[in-house]
TrEMBL record:
Its main location: nucleus. GO terms for molecular function: hydrolase activity; metal ion binding; nuclease activity. Its cofactor is a divalent metal cation. It holds the Pfam family DDE_Tnp_4. The lineage of its organism: Eukaryota, Metazoa, Ecdysozoa, Arthropoda, Hexapoda. GO terms for cellular component: nucleus. InterPro entries: HARBI1-like (IPR045249), HARBI1_dom (IPR027806). It comes from Henosepilachna vigintioctopunctata. Belongs to the HARBI1 family. Residues 168-332 form the DDE Tnp4 domain. This is DDE Tnp4 domain-containing protein. The keyword Disulfide bond does not apply. It is found in: Nucleus. Keywords: Hydrolase, Metal-binding, Nuclease, Nucleus.
Length: 384
């Protein structure tokens, strides 16, 4: 046979064989029926008939959900294409809130959301980043002395710890081991984590959150390397001038309060060591602890409402930080929109892991003197 004809026949046979090869589906059949199987249909039903079930599912009522949906829609709305239909914004928000509320993995969520695991993951991360953006008005860092003074007044009125600008604390947020990270994120408790540093007002609301530092960082250095710590050291926070306390004219500086994990500073008060504790120092510690409990309560509510924190977050550190920050912004949103029903959340037995107590001893003389002045006041004119 003519070699040219032989070559042509071979090409024709090859093409015919290629056509018979079954192409890989770009989407599973059941995923194509999202509108038919979507959990949104069921949620729309229980929204009117079983409002408590609806609230338990999203950790918020229908009115609050609708307000949140309205905020995120302009930033999550996508146009359908000839190839496929985009995920509706309501479904993106629904699967994100469900993930944050339960911590279920993406393989589990794919069935209730009727999305592929990769779509679930992408939708959750994008939605978390949008939540952080649209809820900025609910978590605002004070920028004027008047705003700081208002916070201090609330601490004084509620907890009788005067001139307090906020209670600060940090927690380790468990994550999966990041690829090629060695022991960078391995903390003193023996698991991988990022650090969440937060400042809380007297109403258990976050006024500053910083998430993402590696869990291996020395706990005494968490504040130092944070954005807030940098502003504190540079003295550019517009902290009010010293002011007098009730029953006396002597002026005291405005301070932040923390626990043993932080170094004592002239503008950051911490408890006295349990060693050689005098009755006066014990009284000071008790008063400080009474005011500082707001930050522990805020973290407790956060962990109770958002079960994503009750197991390692199966994402890389940057995405884990976005999830963490989104929960903090939602915490404030729910605290302001629902008030007592949210803030009265029963704190679960699960506790986020504390920062390790710092061993820093070289605090300045001014810091020690300031604490002694507060200690003396709370044992004399300021005693309850």
């Amino acid at each position: 046979m003519d070699p040219h004809k032989t070559a042509c026949i071979a090409i024709i046979l090859a093409l015919a064989t290629k056509r018979r090869v079954k192409r890989k589906r770009w989407m599973k059949e059941w995923l194509k029926k999202r509108e038919e199987y979507s959990h949104i249909l069921l949620l729309n039903e229980i929204r009117d008939t079983e409002p408590e079930d609806y609230k338990n599912y999203f950790r918020m009522n229908d009115i609050t959900f609708d307000k949140l949906l309205k905020l995120v829609t302009p930033f999550l709305l996508r146009k359908n294409t000839n190839m496929r239909q985009c995920l509706p914004v309501k479904e993106r928000l629904a699967v994100t809130l469900r993930y944050l509320a339960t911590g279920r993995n993406f393989e589990d969520l794919k069935f209730s959301a009727v999305m592929s695991p990769s779509s679930v993951s992408a939708a959750i991360i994008e939605t978390c980043e949008v939540l952080i953006y649209v809820l900025q008005d609910y978590l605002k860092f004070p920028t004027t002395s008047e705003e700081w003074t208002e916070i201090a007044q609330e601490f004084g009125d509620r907890y009788q710890f005067w001139n307090t600008l906020g209670a600060i604390d940090g927690k380790h947020i468990a994550i999966k081991k990041p690829a090629n990270s060695g022991s960078l994120y391995y903390n003193y408790k023996g698991f991988f984590s990022i650090v969440l540093l937060a400042l809380v007002n007297a109403k258990k609301e976050f006024i500053m959150v910083d998430a993402g530092m590696n869990g291996r960082i020395s706990d005494g250095g968490v504040l130092y390397y944070s954005k807030f710590g940098a502003l504190l050291q540079q003295e550019v926070l517009n902290i009010p001038e010293p002011a007098s306390l009730p029953k006396i004219t002597e002026r005291f500086p405005y301070v932040f309060i923390g626990d043993e994990a932080f170094a004592l500073r002239s503008n950051l008060m911490k408890p006295y060591s349990q060693k050689a504790l005098t009755p006066e120092r014990f009284e000071f510690n008790k008063r400080l602890s009474r005011a500082r409990v707001v930050v522990e309560n805020a973290f407790g509510i956060l962990a109770a409402r958002f079960a994503v924190f009750q197991k390692p977050i199966n994402l890389d550190p940057q995405k884990s930080a976005s999830v963490t920050m989104a929960c903090c912004y939602l915490h404030n949103f729910l605290a302001k929109e629902t008030q007592q029903p949210y803030l009265s959340t029963e704190i679960t037995e699960y506790d986020l892991v504390n920062l390790q107590s710092t061993l820093i001893r070289n605090c300045g003389t001014d810091a020690k003197t300031t604490r002694e002045r507060f200690c003396n006041y709370y044992n004399t004119e300021g005693k309850l």
